Amino acid sequence: GKNEYDLLVVGGGSGGLACAKEAAQFGRKVAVLDYVEPSPQGTKWGLGGTCVNVGCIPKKLMHQAALLGSALKDAQHYGWNIAQPVHHTWSVMAQAVQNYVKSLNWGHRVQLQDKKVKYFNMKGSFSDLHTVRGLTKAGKETIVTAENIVIATGGRPKYPTHIAGALEYGITSDDLFWLKESPGKTTLHSKILNVSLECAGFLTGIGLDTTVMMRSIPLRGFDQVSQMASLVTEHMESYGTKFLKGCSPTKVEKLESNKLQVTWKNTDLGTEETDSFDTVMWAVGK
Questions:
Q1: Which residues belong to any copy of the FAD/NAD(P)-binding domain (predicted)?
Q2: pTM value?
Q3: Phi, psi of 242 (to 5 degrees)
Q4: Cβ proximity of 251 and 275 under 8 Å
Q5: In which residue ranges of the chain is CATH 3.50.50.60 found?
């Protein structure tokens, strides 16, 4: 039979939306199929992909919150009378960030509608070369056929499931940006550290006790020759972010106080160490 669409895009993130809208402007009949699988902690979001919902946009807004806090501290040296102590309320910031993200979700839906791109809020799987089976959250099935199909599903953070308690008690960046209450004393873990460093930067900036656990060198795979990688971590340390170097977590346990006790191996010293935190965040595999 005749294909229903000229182009079907599976994935409603930055790449998928751009592809769909450009194709539609050339007069093609286009559809986008997008579905957010909730994180293990139950976090979910709307159309727009990682950048809009759990990446660039909320990250930059939270960095802006941290920068405003730094400006308030500096302001008193320039004659501004700022009442002390300055206090940050996570829930107010989070609500503003999440409201802005939701406005972008709606904007993307409107843009698709204006360009006559059909939007399916469904999870897709291939039936054959030109057929995708879409499934809604409620289990309703829709079959979509297209002459061309683009896969633009991006990636999600992973849990280090070999670490006991990681999945049960940890969160990822998918959850951090949608927390309604402050994460409190937080430790962040990853292999390459870029996501960890970005998140640790604004957490420290808004006054939270923040520790980054790093197994090897900072920003592995990035430019080490110019010393920029070490300069980043040195700068962060000067502003209060703590670093546990040469350390690998082995387990996470929940205490009676609801604190999370993290155990790790310090390979440099050959010792096993522990500390308790309010939040443990994994930044692995994105």
A1: 5-285
A2: 0.91
A3: -95, 145
A4: no
A5: 1-155, 166-283
